[in-house]
Design brief:
Layout: E1 2-7, H1 10-25, E2 30-35, H2 41-49, E3 56-57, H3 67-85, E4 89-93, H4 97-108, E5 113-118, H5 131-141, E6 144-147, H6 150-158, E7 166-168, H7 172-181, H8 189-195, E8 200-205, H9 215-228, E9 232-237, H10 242-251, E10 258-261, H11 266-275, E11 278-281, H12 285-292, E12 297-299, H13 307-312, E13 315-317, H14 322-334, H15 336-343, H16 354-365
Parallel strand pairs: 1-2, 1-4, 2-3, 4-5, 5-6, 6-7, 8-9, 8-11, 9-10, 11-12, 12-13
Helix pairs in contact: 1-2, 1-7, 1-16, 3-4, 4-5, 9-10, 9-14, 14-15
Length: 376
Amino acid sequence: MKVMTIFGTRPEGIKMAPVVQALQLDESLESVCVNTGQHKEMLDQVLDLFELVPDYNLEIMKAGQTVEELTARVLAELSPIISREQPDLVLVHGDTTTTFIGAYAAFLQQIPVGHVEAGLRTNNIHSPFPEEMNRQMVGRLATYHFAATKKNKMNLILENVEACRITITGNTVIDALLQITEKPHDFPENLKQIFQNGKRTILMTTHRRENLEELQHVYRAVNRLVRENEDVQFVFPVHKNPIIRQKVLKEIEDTENVHVIEPLDYQDFVHVMKESHIVITDSGGIQEEAPGLGKPVLVARNTTERPEGVEAGTLKLVGTSEGKIYKECQELLSDEAAYQKMAAISNPFGTGDAAEQILNFIKEEFKVKAPSGVRV
């Protein structure tokens, strides 16, 4: 049996790495790995970290490329590869342009699609944009749905997906997270100095397209928090989007307690998250990862497709309001009981065996037998 995995962004690479590793280690399966290159440098770092070498690297990233141009290029490049390889199953992850077009390209050739991290929904097609619509369309194209949680499964059932097509696996990002945190790690000198000063660190990331017009409010909350808490510092790896960088230059006050740095490779980022006290983010994956390390997360969005975290208490939605972000963060900084209440909650997004569960499902569904002479 031949299984093709398709990904192209850093978050996809991180979350698909454990799946690709599991496929490659299983001698009863043939693995074909395709990297569209929707992200370039950031994804290359992930591939090196997990020691993955794609069979195909399309390198479709292009400066100033519109979503429409990206969509057309991914479809044009992927279709002949799928036609040549004729996999029995195509696996895609999440909600990117690569995800949607990978599923669509497979569908056009009548090859079944498995959707890893299926069933996330805000049910607002403009938030996150365009990810929410991407994931909904993949939900219609996929034959098999690997959902992280029961709520994700219920979302799919409400969209008339048959329950027998849905498998709850937990999220593969926890597999990746645990794999990386178990490795010894030494920070580069700039990060080492930051974490040796004894201050409580707040890790912040911002990149959501729908938040671009509101980011100044988030950054003003940062200024306010460091002015009023001398023992608090921010570490802020800034996204490469030039609009975000312009807003950071304009709004973030020049202070020794706000460390504006370049994007981190995944290994450094995971260990920064591990050393941090609180996380403020509009990212999706970090909402799953940080609770796995016992870190309270303030989500700088008005909606989240991960309500399990909000319900469990590991996440708080704070939007992009300066006042709301300041208030909720200040409470965690000043009220130890409130902090511990969030930090101690077990992660609702899995225990680190998602890739194994996906592999087992595939082998059972397709009745894959071990090659002669190989024990199972």
